[in-house]
Q: What sequence folds into this?
């Protein structure tokens, strides 16, 4: 686990507030409903620490979207919904009553579109904030528990660290909340921290894992 100083923690909270806030505005426009954000909780964890951190919540069935990004730092952004929430999200997105059998067929495609818009809005704002271009690839759908998804996806690219952003975005008048996580290796994570430190004007100490 990497412990953030109070100054670095505040800078990350502010930057994610802005970036996810833009993403939430895009989601609100898509759904035609107000989207309320919680205060971000940010931790940088070794992937083996994720299971302990997410606890029982980590065992819930999740529908998710993963998007690879590259630029001054690279990694993958994950958008995660409890499985029961994803169906309701798609119903609202379609804005019409759809038979459950057809809805499940549409679910993956609709969630990929939601993930593409939300994660791109978030990453695009980081690109603007840090004045560096960030490229994204085609999103992929994910299923499993939070713990299983993060362990499986981080092992694919040997990404040692998880920047776990627990920021619930709640769709008003619907019981829907989702989470965002970023997977990076230690080099990418250090670059991200250095770029933020340069932008906000503070110094950080980079330590080897």
A:
């Amino acid at each position: 686990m990497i412990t953030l100083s109070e100054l670095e923690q505040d800078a990350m909270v502010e930057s994610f507030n802005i970036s996810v806030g833009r993403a939430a505005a895009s989601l609100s426009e898509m759904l035609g409903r107000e989207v309320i954000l919680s205060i971000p909780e940010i931790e940088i964890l070794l992937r083996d620490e994720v299971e302990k951190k997410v606890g029982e919540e980590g065992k819930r069935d999740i529908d998710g979207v993963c998007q690879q990004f590259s630029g001054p730092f690279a990694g993958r952004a994950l958008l995660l919904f409890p499985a029961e929430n994803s169906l309701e999200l798609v119903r609202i997105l379609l804005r019409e009553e759809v038979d459950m059998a057809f809805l499940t067929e549409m679910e993956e495609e609709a969630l990929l579109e939601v993930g593409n818009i939300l994660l791109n809005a978030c990453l695009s704002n980081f690109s603007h904030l840090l004045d560096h271009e960030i490229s994204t690839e085609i999103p992929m759908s994910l299923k499993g528990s939070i713990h299983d998804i993060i362990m499986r996806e981080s092992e694919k690219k040997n990404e040692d660290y998880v920047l776990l952003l627990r920021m619930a975005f709640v769709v008003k008048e619907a019981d829907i909340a989702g989470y965002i996580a970023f997977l990076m290796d230690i080099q990418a994570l250090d670059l991200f921290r250095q770029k933020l430190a340069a932008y906000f004007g503070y110094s950080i100490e980079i330590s080897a894992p």
